Structure formats: structure tokens, C-alpha cells
TrEMBL record:
Protein name: Tripartite motif-containing protein 54
Localisation per UniProt entry: Cytoplasm; Nucleus
Residues annotated as domain COS: 258-316
Name of the coding gene: LOC120050610
UniProt source species: Salvelinus namaycush (Lake trout)
GO terms, molecular function: ubiquitin protein ligase activity; zinc ion binding
Classification via Gene3D superfamilies: 1.20.5.170, Classic Zinc Finger, Zinc/RING finger domain, C3HC4 (zinc finger)
Amino acid sequence: MDNLEKQLICPICLETFTKPVVILPCQHNLCRKCANDIFQASNPYLPTRGGSVTSGGRFRCPSCRHEVVLDRHGVYGLQRNLLVENIIDMFKQESTSSAKPAAPERTEEQAMCQEHEEEKINIYCVTHSVPTCSMCKVFGAHQDCEVAPLKSMYQTQKTELTDGIAMMVGNNDRIQGIISQLKETCRTIEENGRRQKSQLCEKFDHLYAILEERKRDLSSKVMAEQEEKLNYIRGLTKKYKEHLEQSCRTLETGIQTMEEPEMAVFLQTVKDLLKRTGEASSTSHLEKVEQGYEAMDHYTVNFWREGRALRSIDFISDDEDEYEEVDGGKAEAGVGGGASTAAPLPSPAP
């Protein structure tokens, strides 16, 4: 049936012959309408009536290029091929009886050729990959091109487009899955970043706490010695003030005694006054502050090594995690200790 169908295809419209079918002198068959279209295109200046040429002319067979000469009847003078018409009827009946009932197709407006405005687009130029009409194949720009039936190319390219769409849908689903994975990866990165930042802040807060603790310990040592020295100096100052007040009173008594006119009374009081004057003039019983007693520079600290260690703080590798857990206490003790040196308090001078 397929081979028979190929033999019943018009070389102009590339569809099954449409009755009436005319046979040319070269024994090739054409639809009368297609033959008339070729004849009009080959003889554009001949008078027509009702779309048909009414006088003689000539055109070439589209299959073998044999020149066909027509009489005054034009294409209507060509003999009809009744055998081919009967075969077409039988083929259509056989196709109708064997074919399954199909859903009614939508009627759409037929596209027309831009070069030949009265011709429908009914073939496909394989060479240029464009749909065209039969006249373009016979006389137009596609004479030397390979052509194919419009229906077969429609089915072929529709199948290709369907496969392409299915591939695109599958590819889009795959890309959508990748996008979902990337979004999930972004959320995971954000969560991991927040967690690690929180842990980092906790580590630094712990380090700050160690430094604050060591700062309080060392400051308390400085303050303790400062308070001890201040108390000692304040006590010594009080003793010197008391000695000064007693000396002033003795001085005042001495001045008053110097004004005593009576010698007997003067001699009675001067002995005790001389003793007190001697005591007031002597400070040997009072303690003396040693030179440099006020210095506090023995509490100087040097954090050069600790500062270098702090500036070298960086993230550790997985191999160092265990070392950090084991030696964490020792490291904290080293950082807190610093490089401070506290000298013992100097003893007050006797």
C-alpha cells in the first residue's frame, strides 16, 4: 500500500492526485488543476477565462521536462486518465475501511505562498528547510532543490520537537533539582557560619575572662602593696606631726621662761625645760623612709611574647583538636601568668 500511495502522488502538489487526472503525451500524470497552474505560469500573457487558458500554448512536464504542446482547448484538451482515477477511488476506499475513526481535526486557514499569492503552501524544501508551494518548485527559486511532502515533514519535525520538549522538560527538572540543592547548601553554609561564629565568640569571651581574671589578680597585688606603703607613710607622718606639735609647745614654754625676771623661779623650771628641749631637737627615735621606698616599678609586666601569641591566633586543623582538648588547661595557665614580676615589700627602716 505504501508503494502504491507513492505512485499516486502528484509531482506538483506532492499529494494524492485530485480528480480529474490528466495524462500527458510523455505518459506522466498530473492533477488538472496543477497542470493548469503550470500552464498559466509558463504562458502568463495568454487570455484566460474563469482561471483557465482558452487558447493553445505549451509547458514542460515537471517529471521529465518533455515539452507539452496544447491546442486551443488548453489543459482541458488533455486526455483524462480514468484508470488512475479508479485506482485512487479504490485506494481511498481501502484506506477508509482500514483506518480507525479519528477525532475530528480542527479546520485551520491554509497558509499561502508569498511569491505566488494564489498558491497554497503544500510542499517542503529540504535544501533550504522552508515550506513552499508547487509553483516555486517548478518555476521558482526551488527548482533544483530537494522537496518532500508537507505532511511527512510536519510529522518528522513535530516528532523532533516533541522529543526536544521532553528533553527540555527533563533537563529543567534536573536543573530545578540542582537549584534546590544549591539553596539547601546556602542555608547549610549560613547555619554553619552562624554556629562557628558563635563558637569563635565563646572562645574569645573565655580568653577575655582569663585575661580579666589575671588582670584582677595582678592589680590586687599592686593595690595591696600600695595600700601597705601608704598606711606606713601615713602612720609615719602622724608620728612626725605629733613630734612637731610637742616641739612647738616646748618652744613656746622656752620663750615664756626666757621672759621670767626672777632668777630663782627661772632656775627652778629651766632644768626640766632643757631636758624637753633636747628631746624635741632629736628625731633619732623616729623611723626614716628608705630611698626608693615609693617605687612600684617592680610590678612591670612584659606581654611581648603573649602579644605575639595573640596576634598569631588562627583556626586550627582537625589534627590539632585533640591537642587543644588535652593541653587547654596548660595553655590557659600560660596566657594568664604573663611575664609579671612582683618584688617583696621592703621592710620599714627601724
